[in-house]
Design brief:
With about 300 residues, the chain is of the alpha/beta class. The protein is built from eleven helices and 13 strands. About 45% of the residues are buried. It binds adenosine monophosphate (AMP).
Amino acid sequence: MTNDSVLIVGSIALDLIETPYERKENVIGGSTTYALIAASKSAPVSVVGVVGDDFPKKGMDLYKKYAHNLNDLKIVSGKTFRWGGRYRENWDDRDTIYTELGVFESFNPILSPSNQNRSHIFLANIHPDLQQLVIDQNKNPDALIVVDTMNLWINTALDGLKNVLSNSHILLINESEAAMLTGQNTITSCVRALQDKGPQIIVIKKGSKGAILFSEKDQITIDAYPIEQVVDPTGAGDTFGGGFISCLANGETMDEALINASVLASLCVEGFGTGAVLGANKKEITLRKNYLRDRIR
Ligand code: AMP
Protein backbone atom coordinates (compact mmCIF):
# COMPACT_ATOMS: atom_id res chain seq x y z
CA MET A 1 0.00 0.00 0.00
CA THR A 2 3.01 2.32 -0.10
CA ASN A 3 2.64 3.62 -3.63
CA ASP A 4 -0.95 4.66 -3.78
CA SER A 5 -1.90 5.53 -0.25
CA VAL A 6 -2.86 8.78 1.43
CA LEU A 7 -1.93 9.82 4.96
CA ILE A 8 -4.14 12.54 6.44
CA VAL A 9 -3.42 14.71 9.46
CA GLY A 10 -5.95 17.35 10.50
CA SER A 11 -8.68 17.92 13.04
CA ILE A 12 -11.24 15.39 14.24
CA ALA A 13 -14.04 17.40 15.77
CA LEU A 14 -17.42 17.73 17.33
CA ASP A 15 -18.95 20.74 15.60
CA LEU A 16 -21.75 23.15 16.37
CA ILE A 17 -23.14 24.35 13.07
CA GLU A 18 -25.63 27.20 12.73
CA THR A 19 -27.05 28.03 9.33
CA PRO A 20 -29.84 30.53 8.70
CA TYR A 21 -32.21 27.51 8.76
CA GLU A 22 -30.80 24.91 11.15
CA ARG A 23 -28.68 24.49 14.28
CA LYS A 24 -27.01 21.21 15.19
CA GLU A 25 -24.61 20.29 17.99
CA ASN A 26 -22.05 17.50 18.24
CA VAL A 27 -21.86 17.01 14.49
CA ILE A 28 -18.98 14.66 13.67
CA GLY A 29 -16.62 16.89 11.71
CA GLY A 30 -13.10 18.23 11.51
CA SER A 31 -10.89 18.62 8.49
CA THR A 32 -9.68 15.00 8.66
CA THR A 33 -13.20 13.59 8.76
CA TYR A 34 -14.34 15.39 5.62
CA ALA A 35 -11.07 14.70 3.81
CA LEU A 36 -11.13 11.01 4.78
CA ILE A 37 -14.66 10.41 3.52
CA ALA A 38 -13.86 12.08 0.20
CA ALA A 39 -10.43 10.46 -0.25
CA SER A 40 -11.58 6.96 0.64
CA LYS A 41 -13.59 6.87 -2.61
CA SER A 42 -10.34 6.79 -4.65
CA ALA A 43 -7.48 5.49 -2.48
CA PRO A 44 -6.67 3.73 0.80
CA VAL A 45 -6.38 6.27 3.60
CA SER A 46 -4.44 6.30 6.88
CA VAL A 47 -5.19 8.79 9.60
CA VAL A 48 -3.01 10.40 12.23
CA GLY A 49 -4.89 12.28 14.91
CA VAL A 50 -6.44 12.29 18.35
CA VAL A 51 -9.90 12.24 19.91
CA GLY A 52 -10.98 12.55 23.52
CA ASP A 53 -12.87 9.94 25.50
CA ASP A 54 -16.06 11.91 24.75
CA PHE A 55 -15.87 11.04 21.03
CA PRO A 56 -19.07 9.15 20.23
CA LYS A 57 -19.22 5.58 18.99
CA LYS A 58 -20.82 6.66 15.72
CA GLY A 59 -17.71 8.79 15.07
CA MET A 60 -15.37 5.86 15.70
CA ASP A 61 -17.55 3.63 13.55
CA LEU A 62 -17.24 6.15 10.71
CA TYR A 63 -13.44 6.12 11.03
CA LYS A 64 -13.35 2.32 11.14
CA LYS A 65 -15.50 2.13 8.03
CA TYR A 66 -13.66 4.65 5.84
CA ALA A 67 -10.03 4.48 6.96
CA HIS A 68 -7.75 1.67 5.87
CA ASN A 69 -5.31 2.21 8.73
CA LEU A 70 -6.07 3.71 12.13
CA ASN A 71 -2.81 2.75 13.89
CA ASP A 72 -2.01 6.40 14.55
CA LEU A 73 -5.45 7.55 15.68
CA LYS A 74 -5.22 7.95 19.44
CA ILE A 75 -8.06 8.02 21.96
CA VAL A 76 -6.96 9.85 25.11
CA SER A 77 -8.59 11.11 28.26
CA GLY A 78 -9.96 14.63 27.70
CA LYS A 79 -12.15 16.59 25.34
CA THR A 80 -12.32 16.13 21.58
CA PHE A 81 -11.51 19.22 19.46
CA ARG A 82 -14.63 21.39 19.24
CA TRP A 83 -15.50 24.08 16.75
CA GLY A 84 -18.62 26.19 16.34
CA GLY A 85 -19.46 28.09 13.18
CA ARG A 86 -22.31 30.33 12.09
CA TYR A 87 -23.27 31.15 8.49
CA ARG A 88 -25.00 34.27 7.26
CA GLU A 89 -27.73 34.43 4.62
CA ASN A 90 -25.21 34.85 1.78
CA TRP A 91 -23.30 31.67 2.86
CA ASP A 92 -19.94 33.28 2.01
CA ASP A 93 -19.46 34.88 5.42
CA ARG A 94 -18.80 32.49 8.29
CA ASP A 95 -18.25 33.48 11.89
CA THR A 96 -16.29 31.17 14.14
CA ILE A 97 -18.19 31.00 17.45
CA TYR A 98 -15.40 29.08 19.23
CA THR A 99 -12.38 26.85 18.64
CA GLU A 100 -11.47 24.55 21.54
CA LEU A 101 -8.37 22.50 20.78
CA GLY A 102 -9.01 20.08 23.67
CA VAL A 103 -6.84 16.99 23.29
CA PHE A 104 -5.14 18.49 20.22
CA GLU A 105 -3.42 21.02 22.49
CA SER A 106 -0.99 18.45 23.85
CA PHE A 107 -1.05 16.02 20.94
CA ASN A 108 2.30 14.73 19.77
CA PRO A 109 1.72 12.67 16.62
CA ILE A 110 3.95 9.62 16.33
CA LEU A 111 3.88 7.91 12.95
CA SER A 112 4.03 4.13 12.92
CA PRO A 113 6.52 2.66 10.41
CA SER A 114 3.96 2.16 7.62
CA ASN A 115 2.74 5.75 7.92
CA GLN A 116 6.32 7.03 7.61
CA ASN A 117 6.33 5.75 4.04
CA ARG A 118 3.12 6.89 2.38
CA SER A 119 3.15 8.14 -1.21
CA HIS A 120 0.79 11.06 -0.55
CA ILE A 121 0.39 13.19 2.57
CA PHE A 122 -2.52 15.56 3.09
CA LEU A 123 -1.83 18.17 5.76
CA ALA A 124 -5.46 19.13 6.28
CA ASN A 125 -6.30 22.22 8.30
CA ILE A 126 -4.78 22.07 11.81
CA HIS A 127 -2.04 23.92 13.70
CA PRO A 128 1.01 24.19 11.40
CA ASP A 129 3.33 22.81 14.11
CA LEU A 130 1.37 19.54 14.05
CA GLN A 131 1.55 19.49 10.25
CA GLN A 132 5.32 19.97 10.54
CA LEU A 133 5.69 17.11 13.05
CA VAL A 134 4.15 14.80 10.45
CA ILE A 135 6.47 16.09 7.71
CA ASP A 136 9.45 15.55 10.04
CA GLN A 137 8.62 11.86 10.43
CA ASN A 138 8.07 11.15 6.74
CA LYS A 139 10.79 8.85 5.40
CA ASN A 140 9.63 8.71 1.78
CA PRO A 141 11.65 11.30 -0.17
CA ASP A 142 9.19 10.99 -3.08
CA ALA A 143 6.05 11.61 -1.01
CA LEU A 144 3.79 14.30 -2.48
CA ILE A 145 2.80 16.74 0.26
CA VAL A 146 -0.41 18.75 -0.12
CA VAL A 147 -1.23 21.39 2.48
CA ASP A 148 -4.37 23.29 3.46
CA THR A 149 -4.65 26.00 6.10
CA MET A 150 -6.92 28.80 7.31
CA ASN A 151 -6.96 32.44 8.43
CA LEU A 152 -6.56 31.53 12.13
CA TRP A 153 -3.11 30.04 11.52
CA ILE A 154 -2.09 32.85 9.18
CA ASN A 155 -2.84 35.24 12.05
CA THR A 156 -1.49 33.22 14.97
CA ALA A 157 1.15 30.77 13.69
CA LEU A 158 2.70 32.42 10.65
CA ASP A 159 6.29 31.26 11.22
CA GLY A 160 5.19 27.66 11.65
CA LEU A 161 3.02 27.92 8.55
CA LYS A 162 5.92 29.28 6.48
CA ASN A 163 8.02 26.36 7.63
CA VAL A 164 5.33 23.91 6.49
CA LEU A 165 4.96 25.67 3.14
CA SER A 166 8.70 25.43 2.52
CA ASN A 167 8.35 21.63 2.82
CA SER A 168 5.16 21.20 0.75
CA HIS A 169 4.54 20.64 -2.95
CA ILE A 170 0.91 21.73 -3.41
CA LEU A 171 -1.00 24.40 -1.50
CA LEU A 172 -4.81 24.55 -1.45
CA ILE A 173 -5.97 27.97 -0.29
CA ASN A 174 -8.99 30.29 -0.44
CA GLU A 175 -8.71 33.46 -2.45
CA SER A 176 -9.06 35.71 0.64
CA GLU A 177 -6.53 33.67 2.64
CA ALA A 178 -4.04 33.87 -0.23
CA ALA A 179 -4.32 37.66 -0.13
CA MET A 180 -3.98 37.66 3.67
CA LEU A 181 -0.92 35.41 3.59
CA THR A 182 0.94 37.32 0.86
CA GLY A 183 -0.30 40.91 1.21
CA GLN A 184 -0.89 40.89 -2.57
CA ASN A 185 -4.16 41.86 -4.21
CA THR A 186 -4.30 40.07 -7.55
CA ILE A 187 -4.49 36.32 -8.01
CA THR A 188 -1.34 36.15 -10.12
CA SER A 189 0.74 38.19 -7.68
CA CYS A 190 -0.58 36.05 -4.78
CA VAL A 191 0.37 32.88 -6.66
CA ARG A 192 3.88 34.14 -7.41
CA ALA A 193 4.40 35.10 -3.77
CA LEU A 194 3.08 31.73 -2.58
CA GLN A 195 5.35 29.83 -4.99
CA ASP A 196 8.28 31.80 -3.52
CA LYS A 197 7.38 30.29 -0.13
CA GLY A 198 7.79 26.68 -1.35
CA PRO A 199 4.92 24.89 -3.09
CA GLN A 200 5.15 25.14 -6.87
CA ILE A 201 1.53 24.16 -7.43
CA ILE A 202 -1.06 26.50 -5.98
CA VAL A 203 -4.79 25.82 -6.08
CA ILE A 204 -6.82 28.95 -5.40
CA LYS A 205 -10.31 27.99 -4.17
CA LYS A 206 -13.01 30.49 -5.06
CA GLY A 207 -16.05 28.92 -3.39
CA SER A 208 -19.10 29.03 -5.63
CA LYS A 209 -16.90 30.40 -8.43
CA GLY A 210 -14.77 27.26 -8.67
CA ALA A 211 -10.99 26.96 -8.45
CA ILE A 212 -7.83 27.65 -10.45
CA LEU A 213 -4.68 25.53 -10.35
CA PHE A 214 -1.40 27.26 -11.13
CA SER A 215 1.79 25.32 -11.85
CA GLU A 216 5.02 26.34 -13.55
CA LYS A 217 3.72 25.27 -16.93
CA ASP A 218 -0.04 25.12 -16.62
CA GLN A 219 -3.12 26.95 -15.47
CA ILE A 220 -6.30 24.91 -15.07
CA THR A 221 -9.65 26.55 -14.35
CA ILE A 222 -12.57 24.55 -13.04
CA ASP A 223 -16.09 25.81 -12.35
CA ALA A 224 -18.05 24.85 -9.29
CA TYR A 225 -20.81 22.38 -10.13
CA PRO A 226 -24.02 24.45 -10.12
CA ILE A 227 -26.23 23.31 -7.27
CA GLU A 228 -29.79 24.29 -6.45
CA GLN A 229 -29.67 24.81 -2.70
CA VAL A 230 -26.83 25.22 -0.21
CA VAL A 231 -27.65 23.41 3.05
CA ASP A 232 -24.32 23.65 4.94
CA PRO A 233 -20.94 24.61 3.46
CA THR A 234 -18.94 23.17 6.38
CA GLY A 235 -16.15 20.90 5.21
CA ALA A 236 -16.32 21.78 1.53
CA GLY A 237 -12.64 22.77 1.50
CA ASP A 238 -11.54 19.62 3.28
CA THR A 239 -13.71 17.48 1.02
CA PHE A 240 -12.11 19.23 -1.96
CA GLY A 241 -8.66 18.41 -0.56
CA GLY A 242 -9.44 14.75 0.09
CA GLY A 243 -11.00 14.35 -3.35
CA PHE A 244 -7.99 16.02 -4.97
CA ILE A 245 -5.10 14.16 -3.33
CA SER A 246 -6.75 10.74 -3.53
CA CYS A 247 -7.09 10.99 -7.32
CA LEU A 248 -3.41 11.86 -7.58
CA ALA A 249 -2.65 8.85 -5.37
CA ASN A 250 -4.77 6.78 -7.73
CA GLY A 251 -2.56 7.86 -10.65
CA GLU A 252 -5.06 10.25 -12.21
CA THR A 253 -4.23 13.60 -13.89
CA MET A 254 -4.43 17.03 -12.26
CA ASP A 255 -7.53 17.72 -14.39
CA GLU A 256 -9.27 14.60 -13.07
CA ALA A 257 -8.18 15.38 -9.50
CA LEU A 258 -9.73 18.85 -9.76
CA ILE A 259 -12.91 17.45 -11.29
CA ASN A 260 -13.29 14.88 -8.51
CA ALA A 261 -12.52 17.52 -5.85
CA SER A 262 -15.12 19.94 -7.20
CA VAL A 263 -17.80 17.28 -7.59
CA LEU A 264 -17.39 16.02 -4.03
CA ALA A 265 -17.30 19.58 -2.67
CA SER A 266 -20.55 20.36 -4.52
CA LEU A 267 -22.18 17.34 -2.88
CA CYS A 268 -20.79 18.35 0.52
CA VAL A 269 -22.54 21.73 0.58
CA GLU A 270 -25.86 20.17 -0.43
CA GLY A 271 -26.16 18.28 2.85
CA PHE A 272 -25.67 18.94 6.55
CA GLY A 273 -22.24 17.95 7.90
CA THR A 274 -20.87 14.88 6.13
CA GLY A 275 -24.36 13.64 5.21
CA ALA A 276 -24.49 14.27 1.47
CA VAL A 277 -20.99 12.97 0.68
CA LEU A 278 -21.63 9.86 2.75
CA GLY A 279 -24.86 9.28 0.88
CA ALA A 280 -23.63 10.17 -2.62
CA ASN A 281 -24.30 7.60 -5.30
CA LYS A 282 -21.90 6.71 -8.11
CA LYS A 283 -24.34 7.68 -10.85
CA GLU A 284 -24.70 11.23 -9.53
CA ILE A 285 -20.93 11.56 -9.12
CA THR A 286 -20.35 10.39 -12.70
CA LEU A 287 -22.99 12.76 -14.04
CA ARG A 288 -21.41 15.73 -12.27
CA LYS A 289 -17.91 14.72 -13.36
CA ASN A 290 -19.01 14.59 -17.00
CA TYR A 291 -20.53 18.05 -16.68
CA LEU A 292 -17.32 19.55 -15.29
CA ARG A 293 -15.05 17.59 -17.64
CA ASP A 294 -16.78 19.28 -20.60
CA ARG A 295 -16.04 22.70 -19.11
CA ILE A 296 -12.56 22.44 -17.59
CA ARG A 297 -10.11 24.79 -19.30
P1 AMP B 1 -14.08 23.96 6.11
O1 AMP B 1 -15.54 24.33 6.03
O2 AMP B 1 -13.58 23.23 4.90
O3 AMP B 1 -13.23 25.12 6.50
O4 AMP B 1 -13.93 22.90 7.31
C1 AMP B 1 -14.71 22.96 8.46
C2 AMP B 1 -14.17 21.94 9.45
O5 AMP B 1 -12.89 22.38 9.90
C3 AMP B 1 -15.05 21.80 10.69
O6 AMP B 1 -15.54 20.49 10.77
C4 AMP B 1 -14.16 22.16 11.87
O7 AMP B 1 -14.21 21.21 12.91
C5 AMP B 1 -12.76 22.22 11.28
N1 AMP B 1 -12.03 23.38 11.79
C6 AMP B 1 -12.50 24.63 11.99
N2 AMP B 1 -11.54 25.43 12.50
C7 AMP B 1 -10.43 24.65 12.61
C8 AMP B 1 -9.09 24.87 13.06
N3 AMP B 1 -8.70 26.05 13.54
N4 AMP B 1 -8.20 23.85 13.00
C9 AMP B 1 -8.60 22.66 12.54
N5 AMP B 1 -9.84 22.38 12.11
C10 AMP B 1 -10.75 23.35 12.13
